[in-house]
Amino acid sequence: MEITLEQSAEIKKLLTKCKLWQKKEQIVKDFSLDSHEQIGKLTGEEAERLKVYLVELEEKGNKMRRKLLSIGYQMNFDAPISAAQKNMDPKDINFKNVNAWCESDKSMHKKSLNRLNPFELTETVTQFENVLKSYKTERQKVAHARR
Fold first, then answer.
1. What is the number of alpha carbons within 13 Å of residue 119 lying toward its C-beta?
2. How far is residue 25's CA from residue 35's CA, in Å, rounded to a whole number?
3. What share of the chain is helix, strand, coil (3-state, %, to 5)?
4. Are the CB atoms for 70 and 91 separated by under 8 Å?
5. Pick from 70, 126, 121, 58: which is nearest to 98 by CA?
6. Residue 107 belongs to what H/E stretch?
């Protein structure tokens, strides 16, 4: 069974959404039994397996973005840090501040939150979790010093 135009379009859409278009050939090759690098040369079965994989990756990426935002809340990233943020919704402030951290030199990938692919997000979540640990440790030291 050959790949359909619908399957091909869906795979291209998912590769773009997952920020993996530049790795397209390698990903397609990994799912092709005949080591084809072009989407159009996949069988219908291979295309379906690739689609399932990409959908799962997209969901994983979205889950990791939510986790980064959750960590941001734990470190008070929803508190305004500038006059421009004073009238903003705390959710928007948190997103802006987490995004700014992701783009900063402190982050290993230095990309905006929505430009990180699922593999980069995994590394970024781990790094941000370490920042959270340091933040909590520092807060405990401050709390002990006040006693």
1. 4
2. 10
3. 75, 0, 25
4. no
5. 70
6. none
Which among 71, 79, 91, 78 is positioned nearest to 136, based on CA atoms? 71
Percent of the chain beyond pLDDT 70? 100
| Domain extent listing, the chain | 5-146
pLDDT per residue as tens digits for the range 96-120: 999 999 999 999 999 999 999 999 9
pTM confidence score: 0.84
Residue 92 to residue 77: CA distance in whole angstroms = 10
For every residue of 118-140, DSSP letters joined together read: HHHHHHHHHHHHHHHHHHHHHHH
Q: When comparing pLDDT for 78 and 144, which is higher?
A: 78
Predicted confidence at residue 63, as pLDDT, reads 97
| Tokens 């995004």, residue located | 99
